[in-house]
Amino acid sequence: MANGLAGKTLRIDLARGDIRSFPTDEGLYRHWHGGRGITAKILYDEVPRDADPLGPENILIVNAGIMSGCFIPAGSKVEFGSVSPLTNGPGDSNMGGHLGPALKFAGYDMIIFEDLSRRPVFLFVDNQTVELRDATKYWGMKSLDCEKKLKEDLGEDFEIATIGPAGENGILFSCITHDFGRQAGRTGQGAVMGSKKLKAIAVRGNKSIHVRNLDSLTKQVTEIILRTKKHPNMVPWQKYGTAFFIQWSNTNACIPAYNFQTTFYEDIDRIDGDQLVEKCLITHKACFGCWMNCGKYTKAVIPGKPEVHLEGPEYETGSLCGSNLGMKDINHVAYINWLLDNLGMDSMSGGGVIAFAMECFERGLISEADLEGHSLKWGSVDDVEHFLDMVAHKRGIGEWFAGGSKRAAAKIGRGSEKFAMQVKGQEMSGYDGRWAPGMLLSYMTADIGAHHNRSWTITVDMAEGRDTVEGRAKIVVYLQHIRPLFDTWCICRLFWGELDITPEEIVESLNHITGWGVSVAEVLRTSEMIWNLNRCHYIERNRDNGRSFDYPPARAWEDKIPSGPGTGKGLSLAQIDRMLDEYYAARGWDEKGNPTRELLEDLGLGYAADRLAKAGFLGRSIPGGIPPVRGEKYKPKAF
Amino acid sequence: MIIFLKAGGELRTKLNPDVDYYTRRVETERGQTLRDILTGIGINPAFVAFAYKDDKVVRLDHVPVDGDVITLQPPVSGG
Amino acid sequence: MLSDEEKQRYSRQMLIPGWDQERLKQATVLIVGLGGLGCASTLYLAAAGIGRLRLCDGDTVGRSDLNRQTLYSESSIGLFKVDEAGRRIARLNPSIVVEKFKVFVDSQNAGKLAEGCQVIVDGLDNLESRFVLNKESFRQRIPFVYGAVHGWLGYAGVFYAPQTACLACLMHPDIVSRDRVPVAGITPGLIGLIQASEVIKWILGRDTSLLGRLLIYDGTDLSFEIISVGKNPACPVCARA
Q1: Chain-chain contact of C207 with A21 (C-beta, under 8 angstroms)
Q2: pTM for this model (two decimals)
Q3: Does domain C18-228 have CATH number 3.40.50.720?
Q4: In which element (H, E) is residue C228 found?
């Protein structure tokens, strides 16, 4: 059995009910490293370019990666991948908790779901017993309730991932939920799962995973454990999780407020990390193999409503469903978090969609008549609850918003496209990029739309100059190579990235596990390969030059920040264009944002060049050739 | 370094086992491929359909390490 | 839909949990080569109720075949194997549809032969034709249930590239093979039945034990080894880009 791998891959034809196990393709892992690398490759190879993401030709991949479950710190992640119905491109989303390790302990590195089931089913995996079981009695249940019921029915020691009504109803930003509060949130993986009538995955496993050099790994990990326990960042992380960013983000004028209208929120003290800990916290919560326990299991207590329990809100939900919606009570933010989790919607896109709808309401573009007699005012948790119910069940104009803010704006028109805060159809993370040019560029160029996990540059922008765009592109390229590696290896970036563990140390762990003997330069190249394969796939699917998809909504350059420390700040369209030009040059792409043959062949992706050429979008050769190395090494300051 | 080669079917005769019925002990230089080693002991690699080590197929350009036990299997084409 | 006679015929295997006789009835299986391997697999696939068997062999029965090719008898000598096999199956299980192709498989006809089949079963007696079938298996994405024998030695495996290795990942076409191969009759019998077992499991949608693996059987010491066959990244047939 290969080191770090469980040894088997499952392919499940949901239409026929066929369950087949294959030996895991070790060569594929060696080349693509697992997780997001393998999802990229398999989606590229197997999903036809005109396949409907919610149709039978799309596949849903669950990949536990090569480092997950190997008793290294935070080896907890699992990666979901499919062609995203939200962005219409290769999509992936990872999730912490315990599912990835459980899958490997059961003996499986990956599950690939094909076609559509005719009736609701869930996948039952108990070591070598793998069955598709009837899920009729669970269909319609909310995510958190369903997980609880499945644990009651199967056993507490099963790790469960479920979708909620949103996924069942094809809401395009639906998520997959696990461990009562961890989500594979982005890119609508829950909608794909729902289209396949796959309600849940339940896994129990008790095998071990072989690693190449256990003694060396143990020695290295022991040193890392002892060192990180004393790291000054450990205390705030353990106390607040990412919620401690709320105040920081506001102070530094990058928190979204009122649908990204401004970047400073006067009522921040009512929804920050201290409020979360003081008013909502029940207990801290950790993923497999992690003692940072950034998870916060909390309660939301609102008079007139039942007390609810949830994990969160962490920074993204806290900002996007907090300041971004004008909420003035942490309990309200937590309640909205719970609503989204239980319905099975991505709380990031959810917050973005609600905020967009609120601004539409404020501007009179939608009315109470459209909202079944309800309003949708800033700060109203009741309004949000009703609105989300409309969206989750596609009632009335809820159906417009079920496709995300971009599609809703296309329906509403009247200039609303300007403030649908998304790129490529996916809503922005909880950082405003108008005074953080690198962050804006990161949103514009991320392969899955406006998501920060590929590249997060707020401290880079602060260090290098928030009012300048020059030189930012090469750093973004580097970060877009190094950060997604965590999703490739299925380990948590927070633990490894925020506690001053170096890339060399992480690669050392990888080598102790696998015996590959790779270097940091090599793994960065693998990541670059994945990035470019996804770019080619996206362009082929969407049949236009890459540049046409890389612009933010017009608010990004038309509306200067109106209040707070960032007052008057903002980029011009010319600056945005300049950033893109610099970015494409740094990437070895042409001015239209299309990868060139020279670059693709350098990465061993000549076949992708052939396909792109056939589609008519192969990048023109760059005079002077491509940069020999793409991306400039940069270590953003940790907190 | 020392490696151990085993063989199945008719290859066993060509191998000249000396450890037991199946196995031959071979002293060889580090860094040599399996193909080189076979040629060195008088076995034409074209008579080896495939080889395996630890229940996994290895190619003839595999470089064994000290102590490896590698099994050689002959071509089998009948039906 | 199964008739009452079919339900009676298959009643013992239908007692096995997870058995779906209707799926076997709807299946089409190609068996190329009706020698020792093909006779064994064909007989048991027909007995199990595979609805349509596509038999391919251009050869006639010879007396030297009779130590192992158990579909035939003394009276079969000189007759085409596909005809004799078809007759024998009809007597065993008249509900099976038999398609007969009196040809030797080659790169020209392999595509048509395999079209519409769920599984390709190897009953061949030479490597060259096996590589033709292997290539077609990859091209049409049909699993290839490989089998081969020599004396007391037998191999069996299921190749389903690109998800698994293919035959060309395992063996190079340039390896030496013989024309007249010594064969103890039991060996192709055993390997052919293992092939049939894997076919049935595949059609039932269950795990096939030899998917991406190779069984090595040595009748001299009754040893069974199963090894895993990794994909060759430089395979001329199935290498993923």
Answers
A1: yes
A2: 0.89
A3: yes
A4: strand C223-228
